Amino acid sequence: MVEFVTASMRQRECGVAIADTGEVRREISQALGDEMIAAAANSLAIALVASLVSTVLGTMAGVAMHRYRMRVLPVLVLTPIAIPEILMGVALLIFFVMLNFTLGLVSVAIAHIAFCIGFVAIVVRARLAGMDESLVEAARDCGATPWQAFVRVTLPLDTIA
After folding, report:
1. How many C-alpha atoms does 58 have within 13 Å on its Cβ side?
2. What letter does residue 130 receive in the DSSP assignment?
3. Residue range 120-127: average pLDDT?
């Protein structure tokens, strides 16, 4: 790796080594290959989609688990955390095959979302359990609708989690 970096540096007249970004990019492309760069781009896309969707769905699940005492929702949300990852992977593979779902980026993103929702829900639920409910009640007393109270009071306090 050190040889790669030093080979990509060029000496200027003043004696300062400056990286030539075009040449570095070509050397990285040659060293890794186009398939590795495509795989890294796929990984980044899956990570971005999975984190955004699981954050939204996990927040909704955490709020629902905090406000309503349902028996089924915590089981559905927390089961992916409790079972081993290999078991969940095999179960999702069987599920996708039974539905004749094409295995690819979408199925991998769905699997990551299903796995991550539980972690987000636990953190959000714990944060809401420690939050002072009188703040939401004060917003409601001042005329805020339930949605306004959630967006302007609960959600900003929950973003810390």
Report:
1. 28
2. T
3. 90
